[in-house]
Amino acid sequence: AGNKADVVASSDYDDLDVYARIFQTIHSMRKSKILVVVPGAKPSRQSEEFSRQFGTTFQYIEYARLNEAYQRIDESAARKEADRYAAGALRIVEPSREQIYRGIRFHLGVKRLLERESANGITIDCLGGINRGELPGYPCVSFSRLDDEGLFGVCQADLGCTMTQLLLTPFTGKPGFLFNVVVDTSRNEIIQSHCTAPTSMRGIGAPPEPYILRTHLETSEGAAVQVLMPIGEAVTVARFLEPKRFVTFGAEAIANVSSDEGCRTQVRPRVKTARRLLTGFKGIVHRVSFYGDYA
Fold first, then answer.
1. CA angle centred on 273, ends 268 and 278, rounded to 5°
2. Which burial class, exposed, middle or buried, applies to 58 when counting CB atoms under 10 A from its CB (0-12, 13-18, 19+)?
3. In sequence order, what are the residues at sequence separation of 6 or more whose Cβ sits closer than 8 angstroms to the Cβ of residue 174?
4. Helix (H) or strand (E) holding 242
5. Higher pLDDT pick, 274 / 123
6. Is 279 helix (H, G, I), strand (E, B) or coil?
7. pLDDT at 149 exceeding the cut of 60
8. Distance from the CA of 17 to the CA of which of 61, 209, 219, 260 falls in 20 to 30 A?
């Protein structure tokens, strides 16, 4: 099952950098603990398979834990942080100050919950929770900020994309943009869109890209993030389809898009052959994009 060792025939110690990052990534995946919020907090077979394959720990929790964490956050501190976050936006289009405040208070509660549980990431069945009224705030802002900090905030309880970020963020040093994919074969392009995205796409701790505060597209409520992504740069798109099946391809980000026909953050990359992306496509619409050529 592969070579037991690799030989680097070089006098340049910098040639070992990629191997050091591989070892760091393996260690990070083994030591990671992800909180999973789904109805009934019932572990899935997929999470058990990922745990066996990579050593990652998944802890399933109820929505009530998020509400408890939200309520523990001091209101005045949350409003002060919401004002600071809003002031950093390029502009605010739809959300009210109250919606932004609730998003920030939710984020501060999630951060405290992660610390309490010694976890470094969370993935939530967010649309379901919103529709059922089980979330005290929209998680879009929190996911963006967690990813910027080198933690993991993942939409829609998507374990495949969670593990993709756990693999590639430690290896690249960059956060991933989880998106819905639309393929345009006539232009050899794809459209990436989601209502949340990291702002530090060039690296954890890097200066943020401009962001606009919007509402969540499908519900026209809450606070969501439209990030203006870097253009004219290589990106790598990837996903675990299952624990032992990983797909990836390279592209070039050529334009930001602003349209109500897709989620708030939208970027259009060009690929070599868009039609090939449809081969064997099984309807799993989420992928994760990282800036840089790693494919």
1. 85
2. buried
3. 168, 200, 201, 202, 203, 204, 290, 291, 292
4. strand 233-242
5. 123
6. coil
7. yes
8. 209
Higher pLDDT, 213 or 295: 213
Q: Which of 163, 180, 156, 169 is nearest to 239 (CA)?
A: 163
18: left (phi over 0), alpha (psi -120 to 50) or beta: alpha
In this predicted model, what pLDDT tens digit does every residue of 40-90 receive, in sequence order? 999 999 999 999 999 999 999 999 999 999 999 999 999 999 999 999 999
Q: Would the pLDDT of 112 be above 80?
A: yes
Which among 40, 33, 41, 39 is positioned nearest to 58, based on CA atoms?
33
Distance CA 214, CA 224 (A): 5
- Average pLDDT (105-132) is 96
* Total residues found in the chain within this entry: 295
- Scanning the structure block, which residue is given the tokens 């998507």? 158
Whole-angstrom Cα Rg for the chain: 19
Among the residue ranges 29-38, 118-127, 265-274, the one predicted with the least confidence is 265-274
Closest C-alpha among 149, 151, 205, 147 to residue 177: 147
Q: How far apart are CA 222 and CA 16, in angstroms?
A: 46
